[in-house]
Amino acid sequence: MTQLAALTKSLWRRWMLWIPIRILSAKHRPKIAAHLKSLGTQDRYLRFGYPATDEQIDGYVAKLDFVRDDIYGVFNRRLQIVSMAHLAFSVDPQWATCAEFGVSVDLKMRGRGLGARMFDRAMTHARNEGVSLMFIHALSENTPMLKIARKAGARVERDGSESDAYLSLQPANLDSQMHEFLEEGMADLDFQIKTRARQFLQLLRTMQEVRRGVRDARHQSGV
């Protein structure tokens, strides 16, 4: 099999399981906060390592660095974030090729593989940015996150109630670069389609309200 044929097969296999994961920016802070605040007490505990309050979540969101790090989100048709991931790059020059990953998924969206797909998306970008080691710090009881890490080939070390997962990444190649390029383009297109569909529905509702108003006015005037 030629390199091009192998690349095409690999990309096709991935797109069959594709989920629109979009890179978020500072303008999405309110939607990120809304998503995290929608998590229950136990889910907040698993995501942050403590049962974060709304105020603590606001503090976390306010400190997100969208220039240094990568923040990913999955939007539903209402343009609400239903899954969010944070790929944090090391600020220590001695660990410049390391990055940490964290993810959260809305309760109603569980069981669809969103966490694993978010991890795969972040892993691909990390490879393309020259990261050689991805790190996950999680509570030992956070079995879904640790399962994702183990399935990707990470080494998991447990220390009491907490666990650390380390995943060595392969250098970037044509496959990883093309995958990320297509992923970003398709996710942006998906978001634009959802935005326009929502705008159309809002316009349709407005027109229906106007028609009802005209009809009611005619009825009252006896026309």
Features:
single chain, seven-stranded mixed sheet, 223 residues, alpha+beta, Aminopeptidase, 50% helix
Short description:
This protein has seven helices and seven strands.
Structure notes:
The chain has 223 residues and is α+β, with helices and mostly antiparallel strands. Helix content is 50%, strand content 20%. It has helices spanning 3-15, 29-37, 41-48, 54-62, 114-128, 143-151, 174-221, and strands at residues 22-23, 70-75, 81-89, 98-105, 133-139, 155-159, 162-168. A seven-stranded mixed beta sheet has the order 1-2-3-4-5-7-6, with helices on both faces. Helix 2 packs antiparallel against helix 4 (54-62) and helix 5 (114-128) crosses helix 7 (174-221).
The H/E string reads HEHHHEEEHEHEEH
Judged by helices, strands and strand pairing, the structural class is alpha+beta
Mean pLDDT, all residues: 82
Find the CATH topology: Aminopeptidase
What general form does the structure show? Answer: globular
Residue share in helices? 40-55%
Number of DSSP E strands: 7
The main β sheet shows up as: 7 strands, mixed
Which CATH architecture is right? 3-Layer(aba) Sandwich
Strand residue percentage? 15-25%
Strand order of the largest sheet: 1-2-3-4-5-7-6
Number of domains: 1
Q: Considering the protein shown, what is the CATH homologous superfamily? A: Gcn5-related N-acetyltransferase (GNAT)
Our measurement of the CA-to-CA distance between the termini, rounded to an integer number of angstroms, reads 76 Å
Contiguous helical run count: 7
CATH class bucket: Alpha Beta
Rg (C-alpha, Å): 21 Å
Extract low-pLDDT stretches.
none
